[in-house]
Design a protein that fits this description.
This protein has 612 residues and is an alpha+beta fold. The chain has 13 helices and 30 strands. β15 and β16 form a beta hairpin.
Length: 612
């Protein structure tokens, strides 16, 4: 018999229930009247969003928008998708920068201002649209009131107004469809004096209050009045949030180098109309309202035609896991001399009888989460940068368990045991080379064990037939203390590995400078080698010192470490499967005991073009 809702007892209270988000919210950012920091042009703005930790009140970067050239009034296309908790105060901070180079280091760019608010403040504003003044100057929280207090930073003056930020929030529907479409245009207005127009399209979805939110930009097609834009894909929820009859507005512009793009005209449609595909219903007149009012004989400024339209359901990380995809976890540990003598307490490898060292903490934090996605719980564990007994040869790819035939360890405890065994048997040496262990795991992701050669000192942990069909995905965790010595070879190995079902996590321990690691983590600038660009971003780097809790609460610190280093794995796995045209197989039934089937394949999706 069901209990009445008002009769819940204390014994039924679940302390973890508060960690389940009520919904996901998409935040759109626009700005008006930003400061102009460029002498011969306008600013090139970028917005960075930060969230504040519940336990230590520290600000952590959540994400960045794209950079928009030459404008003081940007409407950013890239959104921030966050979990919304009604019962929590979710503090947000938005920093604006004028980007002056390709460096991901924000200190190398001009600070334009910042604003503070809570997610509830945005959601609770009329139409879920919040406008706030941007202020130059860093802020700290008042210890008594908890409110942000200004302080001078980046040469700014506290309280100085420097434009407005407009934040819009919309709850995302559960729609997982992705629409792929292509457009062309005919006889657009000529806007350039010495040539034809350089047209591009901007798509907006309508909001419930009658306003519009930008959701996509096509690429620019140069010097033509009859452009054919490339095929692009966009989530249906981004286009109409699951409401097939919601108005979609499309504006046509002529691109100008200085950012003052000329408006050609606009038209409206809906997802339901677009879904009809190529037909007479999807040929749209491009109308410029001002021209129409001024000129009696005005007809239009050209036409835009839908050339193709297709929709398919977007596959998620969980779809692949439910379908049986296994994650193969490999760990590689730095045994170079820069770690210090393991017998001394100052060493990063020191084995205290009272607590785990940084290597063991990082390994445990990541391993305890990822181990549940591998059914056999057998994990290859490697070391690099040490002299091995009995002859003292230097190795950058040796098994921690001493077994050349099988470097796999049973569970995370097995890896820790093998790690402690190696510390007692090998001599720390150098240099810090990553390429051999990256190549080792990549080889295991790409070649059958039967194809090993004399150049492969260790057997491949998994064979290719089980990997290339999408049933397995490899994750390499590298824990290191120092500056990488073989950067060129490592970059080449990563570029080659980006084509394979593989991701790399790098955790830097100790107090060394890890600038080179940031280059390997291609979040902002995709890594390349010998002029060849990596097909995917597969590297995630974090410094361990950022997660050292001064209160001694290692549980919370390591939970944050694991969350941050593993956050990109689901998207990286899905991006590989999508690029290979591999769809998840059906989840196995409880009674079925048939051998695993390969995931279905579909042609690779067309690339997404959103940059101008």
């Amino acid at each position: 018999m069901e209990q009445p809702e008002d009769m819940a007892s204390l014994s039924e209270f679940d302390s973890l229930a508060g960690s389940i988000p009520a919904t996901k919210v998409e935040i759109t950012v626009s700005c008006r009247n930003l400061l102009d920091k460029d002498m011969f042009s306008k600013s090139d703005p970028l917005c960075v969003m930060y969230t504040q930790g519940m336990e230590n009140k520290q600000w952590r970067e959540f994400g960045r928008t794209e950079v928009i050239d030459n404008t003081l009034n940007p409407d950013f296309v890239r959104k921030f998708i966050v979990d919304y908790f009604f019962e929590e105060k979710q503090n947000l901070r938005f920093d604006l920068y004028d980007v002056d180079s390709k460096s991901p280091d924000l200190s190398k760019h001009d600070f334009l201002g910042q604003a503070f608010c809570t997610l509830g403040e945005i959601v609770g504003s009329p139409g879920s649209r919040l406008e706030k003044s941007l202020t130059i100057g860093a802020f700290s929280l008042n210890s008594r009131t908890g409110k942000p207090m200004p302080a001078v930073s980046n040469g700014g003056v506290p309280g100085k107004k420097c434009g407005t930020i407009i934040l819009s929030a919309e709850e995302l529907s559960n729609c997982r469809d992705v629409a792929t479409m292509q457009f062309c245009a005919n006889k657009l207005d000529k806007k350039d004096f010495f040539g034809k127009s350089d047209p591009f399209l901007v798509f907006y979805r309508s909001n419930e209050d009658g306003t519009f939110t930008i959701c996509h930009k096509t690429e620019v097609v140069k010097n033509t009045l009859n452009p054919v834009w490339q095929t692009f894909s966009i989530p249906v929820r981004a286009l109409c949030n699951g409401d097939y009859d919601r108005t979609i507005k499309v504006e046509v512009y002529d691109w100008d180098r200085d950012g003052s793009h000329d408006f050609i005209g606009e038209f409206t449609t809906s997802y339901r109309e677009l879904a009809r595909g190529q037909s007479q219903f999807n040929i749209y007149e491009v109308v410029n309202p001002k021209k129409k009012m001024k000129k009696k004989k005005y007809v239009n400024s050209g036409t835009v035609t839908l050339l193709s339209f297709a929709v398919e359901s977007e596959c998620t990380f969980l779809d692949y896991i439910k379908g049986g995809t296994q994650i193969n976890f490999t760990v590689a540990i730095d045994f170079t001399a820069s770690n210090g003598n393991p017998s001394q307490s100052t060493s990063l490898h020191y084995m205290s009888p009272y607590q785990l060292n940084a290597y063991a903490l990082a390994l445990t934090a990541v391993g305890e989460i990822i181990q549940h996605y591998d059914s056999d719980k057998m994990f290859p564990a490697l070391g690099f940068g040490a002299k091995l007994p009995p002859d003292g040869r230097v190795s950058h790819e040796f098994p921690l368990n001493g077994n050349q035939e099988n470097p796999s360890c049973c569970g995370i405890d097995g890896i820790l045991e093998a790690y402690h065994h190696s510390l007692r048997t090998v001599q720390l040496y150098g240099p810090t080379n990553f390429a051999p262990v990256v190549t080792h795991v990549a080889r295991g992701s790409a070649c059958p064990a039967s194809q090993q050669t004399d150049r492969c000192p260790l057997p491949c942990p998994r064979n290719a037939a089980a990997v290339q069909d999408g049933s397995q995905y490899s994750v390499l965790l590298i824990i290191t203390d120092g500056v990488i010595s073989d950067m060129a070879q490592t970059k080449e190995a990563i570029v080659n590995a980006a084509k394979l079902p593989m991701s790399i996590i790098i955790i830097g321990v100790g107090q060394a400078e890890f600038d080179a690691m940031v280059e390997l983590d291609g979040d902002d600038v995709r890594i390349s080698s010998r002029g060849k660009l990596a097909e995917r971003d597969i590297v995630q780097f974090v410094p361990f010192r950022d997660y050292v809790d001064r209160t001694g609460n290692h549980v919370l610190s390591m939970a944050r470490l694991a969350r941050d280093v593993l956050a990109e794995i689901p998207d990286q796995l899905v991006s590989y499967m999508k690029a290979q045209g591999i769809r998840p197989r059906s989840p196995p039934t409880a009674t079925a005991r048939s051998p695993p089937q390969s995931p279905a394949r579909t042609p690779p999706a067309s690339p997404l073009h959103t940059h101008i």
